[in-house]
What we know:
The chain has about 425 residues and is an alpha/beta fold. It has helices spanning about 1-30, 65-75, 80-85, 115-120, 130-145, 170-180, 195-210, 220-240; strands at about 45-50, 85-95, 100-110, 155-160, 185-190, 215, 315, 340-345, 350, 355-365, 370-375, 385-390, 395-400, 405-415, 425-430. The longest helix is centred in the first third of the chain and has 29 residues, at about 1-30. The radius of gyration is 26 Å and the shape is globular. The chain starts with a helix and ends with a strand. Mean pLDDT is about 75; it is low at about 1-5, about 25-40 and about 240-315.
Amino acid sequence: MKATLNRRGLLAMAAVALLLAAWAALSVLNGWPPFARTGAPPRVLLVLDRSGNMAQPLTDGTGTKLQAAVEAIGRVVLPAPAVSSSQLGLREYGGSCAGPNTQLTVPLARNNGDAVRGALTSLRPSGDTTLVAGLQRAISDVAGSGASPAGPIEIVVITGGGDSCQAATTAAGLRAAMDQAGPTVKFRFLGIDVPPAERAALDNLVSAMGASPAFYARTQRDLEEALNKFVLDLQQSVDNGRSAHGPEGDRGRPEAAAPTAGPGSPGSDGTASGSGVTPAPLATPPAPTGISPTPTPIPVPTATPVATQAPTPTVAPTPAPVATPTPPPGPTRAPGSNRPPVLNAIGDQQVSQGQVLEIPFLATDPDGDAVEFTLITRLFPPFCALIRTDPGAAHLRCAPSSTDSGAFVFELTAEDNGTPSLSVSQSFTLRVR
């Protein structure tokens, strides 16, 4: 009798084990969450640059930096199921170096997609690039969010440039704050059309913090691919119930680096730093209930010229034709040598309200290299647009309305693609009266 009971008990235990195995198999096949999880849900904090440099147009002329960042987040990050199952928050930075210059717009919480989308649509670019202040407060945000220390923490930083303030907090101070917050804090730096002159300082900051190298996107598509890589890593983290990169985050781990463009992919001209891993093909996950996969139109300032109030705008006198600069004489180019491009003289400019002014830019390269223009200003006026016409030629078109006025200082850089790459710059002031 006792032997029969033991056999029945063993058979019952085997049946239970088979049922549990069948449930686990169905969960994998159907993408259901496992019946048990270990570890806290991930925390994802988006840290977005909304400083004046984000009002600058992308070099491909498709919109401003801020528009590209907001639309990429709306298309790739917010609809992702992995993000929906995580705590999500948004911090913005940009303003006066003396402060206030950063704000936790949406605190970390579950099901925060709609709140983040709404906050993104209200952002307006202005002020200095207060990157370090934003990073310092972001670490405090995740350290004090109240979740279990075992939960992975992803801080995704999207910036249009390096810090423009003499921040009192150093990179070493940020690293110390990261260590105090816990080993699961992981930074991912994504630059959007960052000027080459600002990348070295940004790379030094990222390296000193112990994070993986920054990924530099030149277009919105580049940024979406980098964010898609982040979403895939986060999904793996959610599936595993722990960080996909182990307890040490991505500090110094090459496999956690942001994607580096491979042959034939965007950014393969050397603008991306990373692990050498080609980003996965972009596949926007289906939007969760209540969130549209199509981003809300972003009413941020664009480079489209502002229409004048008069029925027919008065056109300012066309500047005198610019003579093609003659490259300085030099010896025959030796292998491996390079000479900088030659940029035409620009000079200060003036335009009246209601008029249209076009400022021509022309550059030639004595070695026949391709030349690319970069136009930098502290706050790019929304009534101006940089228009590229031919290789080595472009013009700045400005059409101020009756409400626009002030002086705007620009720095134009012409950079060739030689080895090593060389550039030449000029500064000029545009006054609107």
